[in-house]
């Protein structure tokens, strides 16, 4: 009986994630959080950076979050994978976002979105089937639209602005 319990436990621990709700994350303040708290709403996951040509998208992300707050949550994931454009510590990133763009939407602690140290959530997002494309993130501010059940439904490159009809029509 102990052997069966151990096998079941190991199977559970190594089971592939079935949605974004299966991942344990930390917010920018270092506290644990789960995307499962947003069940019933769509979630736009964005890998962000403070020193990028796309950084002004923070303003549109905040507008999107405000405009669609009843059915969408925007979550930013700062990453330093592209051109060292997010070199700061979490406290610096949070202050920068609040001061320069009035960001109130949730931010995670800084993560890696590609390479050997890729965060498990981004490994899942870049390999999960969706109608757009899969594969490695090419640059900062790529966007992943998650449905109300935690499933990836669309992916957008950095050049797609947050208020683009390609995104807003999917909300």
UniProtKB/TrEMBL annotation:
Signal peptide: 1-20
Gene3D superfamilies: Glutaredoxin
GO molecular function: peroxidase activity
PROSITE patterns: GLUTATHIONE_PEROXID_1, GLUTATHIONE_PEROXID_3, THIOREDOXIN_2
Catalytic residues identified in the record: 52
Protein biosynthesis as UniProt keyword: no
Entry keyword set: Oxidoreductase, Peroxidase, Signal
Domain Thioredoxin: 14-171
One BP term from GO: response to oxidative stress
InterPro entries given in the database record: Glutathione_peroxidase (IPR000889), GPX_AS (IPR029759), Thioredoxin-like_sf (IPR036249), Thioredoxin_domain (IPR013766)
Membership in a protein family: Belongs to the glutathione peroxidase family.
PANTHER family: GLUTATHIONE PEROXIDASE, PHOSPHOLIPID HYDROPEROXIDE GLUTATHIONE PEROXIDASE
Name the UniProt record assigns to this protein: Glutathione peroxidase
């Amino acid at each position: 009986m102990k052997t069966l319990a151990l096998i079941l436990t190991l199977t559970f621990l190594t089971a592939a994630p079935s949605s974004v709700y299966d991942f344990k994350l930390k917010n920018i303040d270092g506290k644990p959080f789960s995307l499962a708290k947003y069940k019933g709403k769509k979630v736009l996951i964005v890998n962000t950076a403070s020193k990028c040509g796309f950084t002004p998208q923070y303003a549109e992300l905040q507008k999107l979050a405000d405009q669609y707050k009843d059915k969408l949550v925007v979550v930013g994931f700062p990453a330093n994978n592209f051109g060292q454009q997010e070199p700061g510590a979490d406290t610096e990133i949070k202050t920068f976002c609040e001061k320069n763009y009035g960001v109130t939407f949730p931010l995670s602690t800084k993560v890696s979105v590609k390479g050997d140290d890729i965060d498990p959530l981004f490994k899942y997002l870049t390999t999960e089937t969706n109608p757009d494309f899969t594969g490695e993130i090419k640059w900062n501010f790529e966007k992943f639209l998650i449905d109300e059940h935690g499933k990836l439904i669309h992916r957008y490159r950095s050049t797609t602005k947050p208020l683009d009809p390609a995104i807003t029509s999917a909300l």
